[in-house]
C-alpha cells in the first residue's frame, strides 16, 4: 500500500508539472488518484511504471483548439475560442457535452473530459470520454447571434466529429436551441443525415424522449438508492437544489414526483427560497420560456418566496442537497452548514461542484455523498440510448427510456456501492465510483496495447 501511495504521489506531481495553470484539471485528477491506492495494491499491472497506464490515461488522445469568429446583430465581429478534447476512446466513441460559458478554458474542458471517461465507463454503455465548448457567453445574446455563433463553431468542429468518432451534446449554456443550430450546420456542411453525431436533439428530428430530463431525474434516483441502502426514502424530505438550468429544473421535477419538497433554486446572482416549495410551472416559464433570472420567479411567486442576492442555497436547512450548477460551488464552510442543518445525503447533479475538503467533511459526518461521476451519469446514459435509437432509426417511448434510465441508475449505484465495499471503503461512493470506472477503462486500455 505504501508503494502504491508513493507511485500515485509521483504521478500527481508529474501530471501537475506537465499541465501548468490548469487548476480544475489538477483537482479532478488528484481526486481520482487519491482513491486508487487499494486497486494499485491489488492489481500491480495498473501501477507498473513501465506500462505508463496512468500517464496515458491523463494525457488526452487529441486536443483541438480553434478560432470562432462571428458577427453580432450590429455587425461587430467577435473572436471566441473553441475547444474539443477527445480524451479517451478505449470503450467507445468520445462522448461528452459542449459548454458555452466565459469561464471555459483548456483546463476546464480537460477536467470535464477526464471526469467524463469514468462516468461514461460506469454507465456500461460503450462510450469513451470527451468534452468541448467555448468561452462564448450566450447570456443576453439574441437567437440570431447564438445561431451565427453555433454555425461558426460547427464550421470547424464538423471535421472532428461523427457518429462513430466523437458525439457531442449539451452542458452549461448549450441546450436544445444550440444543439438544433449545431446539427443544422453539420448537416449542411456534410450533406449527411447523420442523426447520431449529436445528442440532445429535438424529439421530432432524432432526439430521445426523456433526454432533457435525464440528468436531473438520474441524480434524484441515485439519491433514492443511497437513502434506500440506509433504510430511508425521499418521501416527505425537504431538499435544497442549486442552479436553475437543465439539471436543476428536472431535479426539482423528480423530487416532487417522489414526494420530496425542493425549497430552493439559484443562479449566479443569488438564490430563491420558497417556503411552500418550488412552483415548477412558474420556474419553467421564467427559465425555459423567458430565459429570465430566478429573482423574477421570486417577484412573481408571492409571499412564500424570497430572493437572496449573492447568497448560497446551502444556508437553507434541509434533509438532502443537490448541487446542480457548476464546479466548486459547495465549499468546506457550506458543508459544515449543511451538516449543522441535518443533511442526510448529497447528490452531485453538476460536475465537481463539491470541493475536496467539503467532500471530506460530509463523509466524516456520515452524510451519504454521491459524486457526479455516478450521480449525474443519467444524462450521458440517455444520450447513449439516443445513439442506439438513431442507429436503429427508432424512437422509443418515454416510458421505455425512463425505465431504462432507472435501471441504469440502480446498476451504477450497485456497482459503485459493491466496489467500495470490496476495496475496504464501505459507503464511500467516491472511492467506489473512481475504482469501478478506472477498472473498466484500464482493462480495455491494457487489452488494446500501447495506444
Ligand atoms: P445550464 O446552462 O442549463 O444551467 C446552469 C446553471 O448553473 C444556471 O442556473 C447558471 O446560472 C448556473 N451557473 C453556471 N455557471 C455558474 C457559475 N460560474 N456560478 C454560479 N452559477 C453558475 O447547465 P446544466 O444545467 O446543463 O449544467 C449544470 C451542471 O450540470 C454543470 O456542472 C454541468 O457540467 C452538469 N451536467 C450537465 C449535464 C446535462 O445533461 N446538461 C449532464 C451531467 C452534468 P447563470 O444563468 O446565472 O449562469
Ligand atoms: O457532463 C455530462 O455528462 C454532460 N454534459 C452530458 C454529456 C452527454 O454526452 O450527454
UniProtKB/TrEMBL annotation:
Organism superkingdom? Bacteria
Task: Supply the alphabetized keyword list.
Answer: Oxidoreductase
Where is the Glutamate/phenylalanine/leucine/valine/L-tryptophan dehydrogenase C-terminal domain positioned along the sequence?
208-449
Q: Is Oxidoreductase found in the keyword set?
A: yes
Quaternary data: Homohexamer.
Which PANTHER family does this one have? NADP-SPECIFIC GLUTAMATE DEHYDROGENASE 1-RELATED
Q: Which family does it belong to?
A: Belongs to the Glu/Leu/Phe/Val dehydrogenases family.
Q: What protein name applies here?
A: Glutamate dehydrogenase
Amino acid at each position: 500500500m505504501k508503494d502504491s501511495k508513493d507511485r500515485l504521489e509521483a504521478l500527481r506531481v508529474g501530471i501537475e508539472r506537465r499541465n501548468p495553470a490548469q487548476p480544475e484539471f489538477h483537482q479532478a485528477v488528484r481526486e481520482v488518484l487519491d482513491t486508487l491506492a487499494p486497486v494499485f495494491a491489488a492489481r500491480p499491472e495498473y501501477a507498473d511504471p513501465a506500462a505508463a497506464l496512468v500517464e496515458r490515461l491523463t494525457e488526452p488522445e487529441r486536443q483541438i483548439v480553434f478560432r470562432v469568429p462571428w458577427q453580432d446583430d450590429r455587425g461587430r465581429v467577435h473572436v471566441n475560442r473553441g475547444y474539443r478534447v477527445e480524451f479517451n476512446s478505449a470503450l467507445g466513441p468520445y462522448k461528452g457535452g459542449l459548454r458555452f460559458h466565459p469561464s471555459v478554458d483548456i483546463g476546464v474542458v480537460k477536467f470535464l473530459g477526464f471526469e467524463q471517461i469514468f462516468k461514461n465507463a460506469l454507465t456500461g454503455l460503450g462510450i469513451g470520454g470527451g468534452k468541448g465548448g467555448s468561452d462564448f457567453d450566450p447570456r443576453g445574446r439574441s437567437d440570431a447571434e447564438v445561431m451565427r455563433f453555433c454555425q461558426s463553431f460547427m464550421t470547424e468542429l464538423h471535421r472532428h466529429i461523427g457518429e462513430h468518432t466523437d458525439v457531442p451534446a449539451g452542458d452549461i449554456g448549450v441546450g436544445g436551441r444550440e444543439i438544433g443550430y449545431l446539427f443544422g450546420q453539420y448537416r449542411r456542411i456534410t450533406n449527411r443525415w447523420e442523426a447520431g453525431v449529436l445528442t440532445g436533439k429535438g424529439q421530432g428530428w432524432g432526439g430521445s424522449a426523456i433526454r432533457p430530463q435525464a440528468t436531473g431525474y438520474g441524480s434524484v434516483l441515485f439519491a433514492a438508492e443511497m437513502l434506500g441502502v440506509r433504510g430511508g426514502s425521499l418521501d416527505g424530505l425537504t431538499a435544497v437544489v442549486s442552479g436553475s438550468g437543465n439539471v436543476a429544473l428536472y431535479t426539482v421535477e423528480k423530487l416532487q414526483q417522489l414526494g420530496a419538497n425542493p425549497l430552493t433554486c439559484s443562479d449566479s446572482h443569488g438564490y430563491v427560497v420558497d417556503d411552500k416549495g418550488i412552483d415548477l410551472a412558474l420556474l419553467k416559464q421564467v427559465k425555459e420560456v423567458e430565459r429570465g433570472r430566478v429573482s423574477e420567479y421570486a417577484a412573481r411567486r408571492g409571499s412564500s418566496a424570497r430572493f437572496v442576492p449573492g447568497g448560497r442555497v446551502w444556508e437553507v436547512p434541509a434533509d438532502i442537497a443537490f448541487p446542480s450548477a457548476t464546479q466548486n460551488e459547495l465549499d468546506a464552510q457550506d458543508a459544515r452548514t449543511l451538516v449543522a442543518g441535518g443533511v442526510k445525503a448529497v447528490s452531485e447533479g453538476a460536475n465537481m461542484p463539491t470541493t475536496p475538503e467539503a467532500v471530506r467533511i460530509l463523509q466524516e459526518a456520515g452524510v451519504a455523498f454521491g459524486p457526479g461521476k455516478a450521480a449525474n451519469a443519467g444524462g450521458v446514459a440517455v444520450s447513449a440510448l439516443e445513439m442506439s435509437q438513431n442507429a436503429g432509426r427508432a424512437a422509443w417511448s418515454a416510458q421505455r427510456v425512463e425505465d431504462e434510465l432507472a435501471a441504469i441508475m440502480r446498476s451504477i449505484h450497485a456497482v459503485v456501492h459493491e466496489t467500495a465495499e470490496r476495496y475496504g471503503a464501505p459507503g464511500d461512493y467516491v472511492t467506489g465510483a473512481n475504482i469501478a470506472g478506472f477498472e473498466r477503462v484500464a482493462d480495455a486500455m491494457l487489452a488494446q496495447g500501447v495506444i
